[in-house]
């Protein structure tokens, strides 16, 4: 249990014991990084890497077909500050990332999960672990073309997670992802929440080190 009172009111606890390391997992150094969850074919990841040469982005995509396209593009461009990861983002984050290591985390146009609200990021116990990995002052960028998704996220940020945020309308000329291009071309309203982790924000996982430091193959037995 944390030594300080929690800064939020989310009741469900994320259970780390059920996780297993991603296939072909390798650890990373404890240095500041950025993270993209659900990188798709890598359009935003490659753009971010080219525009931010001083920042290293780990971009994660779970699906095989999209990651294949991403990996091909990343291999041709070969930016030194971009690492493409084929894995489940939840397991990879738990096994690889140190407390307060993330400067920025991008979650751009996630599946809105219309039939299962508990699978939306701010309704997931994993979100608390993610917050523990964010540096003080670090930001989570959450974008969606679904107004109800953004509205629900705002309510949860205010009432449950107790986090400051800013809401921004995406410019019609923005082209960070293939989804964003498609939605804006159809005239849909795309918005993003820029969520900031304040200094002194406490979670249950503030002192939880990456699981690779304590996990062994015998844990699967």
Automatic annotation (TrEMBL):
Q: Which GO terms describe its molecular function?
A: tRNA (guanine(46)-N7)-methyltransferase activity
Any single GO CC term annotated in Swiss-Prot or TrEMBL for this entry: tRNA methyltransferase complex
Provide the transmembrane region boundaries: none
Could you name the domain of life of the organism this protein comes from? Bacteria
User: Pfam families of this UniProt entry?
Assistant: Methyltransf_4
- Function, as annotated: Catalyzes the formation of N(7)-methylguanine at position 46 (m7G46) in tRNA.
Instruction: Quote the PANTHER family the UniProt record gives.
Output: 3-DEOXY-D-MANNO-OCTULOSONIC-ACID TRANSFERASE/TRNA GUANINE-N 7 - -METHYLTRANSFERASE, PENTACOTRIPEPTIDE-REPEAT REGION OF PRORP DOMAIN-CONTAINING PROTEIN
This one is known as tRNA (guanine(46)-N(7))-methyltransferase
Source organism of this protein record: Moraxella lacunata
